[in-house]
Amino acid sequence: MKSSAIRIGVLVVLAVVVIAAIAILPTKEYLLQFVEAVQRMGSTGPVVLAAVYVVATVLFVPGSILTLGAGFLWGVPIGIVTISVGSTLGAAAAFGLGRTLLRDVIAAKVAKNEKFRLIDAAVGEQGFKIVLLTRLSPVFPFNLLNYSFGLTRVSFRDYILASWIGMLPGTAMYVYIGSALKSLADLSTGNYDGGLGQKLLFGFGLVMTVVATVFITRIAQKSLRDALPPSAPTENHEAQHSSDQSPPDGDSPVV
Q: What is the pLDDT of residues 222-235, one digit of tens each?
């Protein structure tokens, strides 16, 4: 118990430090400087950017600048491959950390919570669909989901495959937007517009949000219904059953 409390305390402190650092430090400027540096690396640039994307994902650093930068530097095909590899490996790393560092601690805390265990089981059964739908939705935060799914029983294979497929549309769109930038100055000022394609992708994402919410809710409810024992007899039924078994008034025992 004491070691678990210490582990939780350390993880909370680290999370606070990382979030505070991202909020205080000029993260955007650092990422822009990194994109400029990658531009001079030649053929090794995509590998370096993908590796940094993995670290950024684990540390909850938003990856939009890196995605747009990849499109600007190398165009759509190479940009998509670079970001897809980096984001998928980053999601895998965060998933692994969540499953190894947090799973036992949180499982111990909610071991007596029947609903959590049933929802966990539902994710284990329908993990691919749930991961895919949440990845297609812009409402579910990418970095937080990586750790959250590590706490469920979804298989690593389903998680990785569904994450990769679900992240592809958004990756392709932002890489394409980046490829249309005139200069890195546009990237730094946020002077870019995805036009109709971005609006359509956003609308599709909202639809997927509704679908994911309904789908997950139904699975959880079904798991709860399937796991609940048959209903116990009502009090009235028990009372009626008791009266039926009692002897007639004339045979009642004398007190």
A: 655 654 555 544 44
* Whether this model's pTM surpasses 0.85: no
CA distance 129 to 222: 16
Kindly tell me if the per-residue pLDDT of 37 is higher than 80: yes
Ranked by mean pLDDT, the top range of 29-43, 81-95, 208-222, 235-249 is 81-95
Q: For the chain, what are the domain ranges?
A: 26-228
Which 3 state secondary structure label does DSSP give 121?
helix
Q: Which amino acid is at 75?
A: G
Instruction: Give the contacts of 2 (CB within 8 A, at least 6 positions apart).
Output: none
Vertex 39 angle, CA 35 and 92, to 5° = 55
Would you say 56 and 143 are in contact if contact means Cβ atoms under 8 Å apart?
A: no
Report the C-alpha gap between 225 and 229 in whole angstroms. Answer: 8
